[in-house]
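ligand=LXAUTJHC
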Amino acid sequence: MNFVEFPDREVMLLDLANKIAGELRAALEVEDRVSFCVPGGTTPGPVFDILSGVSLDWGRVDVLLNDERWVPESSERSNTALLKRRLLVGQALAARLIPLHRDVPTPEEGLPGLMPAVEAALPLNVLLLGMGTDMHTASLFPGADQLELGLSEDAPTLLAMRAPGAGEPRITLSAKALKTAISTHILITGAEKRAALERAETLSEIEAPVRAFLADATVHWAP
Ligand SMILES: O=C1O[C@H](COP(=O)(O)O)[C@@H](O)[C@H](O)[C@H]1O
């Protein structure tokens, strides 16, 4: 794991956005379309704000979430709504959103329709992950019903996930799909998440799903 510590969040967010923009730009020089896979939740909004104003050929960028909560877009818990509000605006409005939600009652019913476009976006060019204090990443939660499958080599690209700590049913890219990324960044803030990350390094992937990504990731942390 490459751990990069910053003195404050603003410096970290600018540096991270700059790195991601550089990686997307480099990929666009050699590929017709590139994919950028991003987390939801409370942490990435400020990075999205910076990236949305960055000048690059967004019309050739496919943006997709790591995971989505199975709630309507009108819900404040919708990761898709966050993306539309904070990333897919300004310069980045030209990017193509690959959806992870459909207006059907369960993720299982949504999966078949969502899967083809997500599979077409693989391998991922740039992956940004978040992490909860329970060491989940994407919707790979400790104790989740399909966690073993989600972490396995035989995993489908997308799967439904339910977990005690998740709040609502989820849909998530599997570890196998996420690990296709050429470049992986993990964004975490605060002492509690730093302690959780240090703990994750001592646990198994089943106990601490984020561990599945640490070997190949750069972790960006600020207090
Ligand atoms: O539920 C989720 O949580 C994680 C971490 O979110 P945060 O609020 O602690 O930043 C996030 O990475 C994931 O995409 C999201 O669905």
